[in-house]
Amino acid sequence: MRAPDGPPVTAGDVLLSIDNVSLSFGGVKAVSGVSFDIRKGEIRAIIGPNGAGKTSMLNIINGFYHPQEGVITYKGEARAKMRPHDAADGGIARTFQNVALFRGMTALDNIMAGRTLKMRRNMFWQMLRVGPALAEEVEHRHRVEEIIDFLKIQEIRRTPVSRLPYGLQKRVELGRALAMEPELLLLDEPMAGMNIEEKEDMSRFILDVNDHYGTTIALIEHDMGVVMDLSDRVVVLDHGIKIADGTPNEVKSNQAVIDAYLGVAH
Amino acid sequence: MFYRETGQFKSSYAADMAIFPIRQDRIALWVVLAAAFVAVPLLDFFQVWPFGGEYILRAILIPFLILSLAAIGLNILTGYCGQLSLGSGAFMAIGAYSTYKFCTGVHIPLELFTISIPPLPVLPSILLGALMSAFVGILFGIPSLRIKGLYLAVATLAAQFFFDWVFIRVKWFTNYTSSGSVAAPDLVFFGFTVTTPIHRYLLCLVFVSIFALLAKNLVRGNIGRQWMATRDMDIAAELMGIRPLYAKLSAFALSSFVMGVAGALWAFVYLGAWEPLAFNIDRSFQILFMVIIGGLGSILGSFLGAAFILVLPILLDQVPHALGVPVSVETVSLLVFVVTGALICWLLIVEPRGFARLWSTGKEKLRLWPYPY
Q: Looking at the domain assignment, is residue B46 inside a domain?
């Protein structure tokens, strides 16, 4: 694990910047005037108490929600209104708070489905499944098998995911996101509901993904130990407002953060 | 036991991703194909029991094949892509009537110009007719982008009633015959006229084999995964770059195409002469039941479901005769309904995923036999 007091990590170029973004549902302000950025190659944590607007933030980043105000700049381009599959095209992948696997499919097919954007053969070729279509399928199977090896889920590749225990489902979901070869990986509570061993495994995978593939990661997590150990920088939201932003140590000693988590005497 | 994959090692992903990676399955498939393509014609040629008359071919095998094809079509849409449809009858009817029109020539005088297509041979007519069906399928699939489940089923039900009405009321489709029923022209394929039941059977068999293979290839390829992803978790699918528009409408198009071919075969090869009633709402339900009982999301299930729905009433009808039980014809036909209904209920309680799931559970058990797990 990274030492909490280690040197400030690779302050690379900004991959994604969120500028003064606000999102409301009717009268409910989910996110108001939040600005932060995600740099290339870092692990960026988004934390906050329940209802702080963390998941809304992820949904904004991958185009599922459209903020009423603010500008999102991804890879140097200010983004207009975009659909989720455009975000996927642009290299943003994510996992979900409640596992959102394709329950009727095997682990292998789930991860193969993550390659869908990389597959070019049209329906006619797929129907015949010869020559280039078969070659393409085999090539992507190779890539998927690498991910399966990486996540150590070889023995469950043929199992329908609905039969897998929760921890493995989370792992398959990570594999499906990795299959997209994302530049930015959004993880929504990757460790929710896991025991300590599973959390350690998952932490290791997240660090490995970051090191090995150089993927930029933005994660939401409630386990503060994990957040402080894994992340390079942390942004703290509360009631849709950003209350702190900085390295884990800065955030930990920030009075507003302590108040938000522990409450203040009125 | 004989069903073991021990010792069958795959050295390439291509071999691992074959339709039947297990050798025993491949052997079984070849046996079934050999029986269908060789044994049945031979038995028929020598008039061996049970092919003494034409009953088996005419009343069981030909409708079984055609309805299996229709079930494959619906399975693509409902089983794989998760879009419930009650319009199968309509898409079959469109296939049948369009094929009929292409066969007998299309002449549409418009104000500016006249669309005129001379009568086409049967095979191109069937494919063009199916293409029409696919086109209409896409049109009626557009609501699926906004509505799901039962609401979509109602929208497809609209297609069913609309086309029932069209083919009864718009005389142009039936070439203005006074009775409203139409007769198929001669079935000429590459200069060969299909007349006898065995030839009709082989014709259907060729169509079904080809479409089953193509459908199987599709559902295990990229587009198949897109369909299943859309079915299982549409939001996650979209966030992974799957376009719901493309996934759903391609399923509607392909499904309607296959059902259009099935409809054309049903009309031309099985019925010979038909009325719009042949493709009414009962047909849609029949095919939906086949898909549900056979197994949603399984090509094999389409065949099993078709066999069950089609053969069971015939068997039930024959059993009292064979046993010599003196029951009247009306009682038998009522009993068939009762028993079929009860069996369907029982089956869905025991195995809601249909015969295909029973089949795969059985195979799994066999692989481990004699150990429980």
A: no
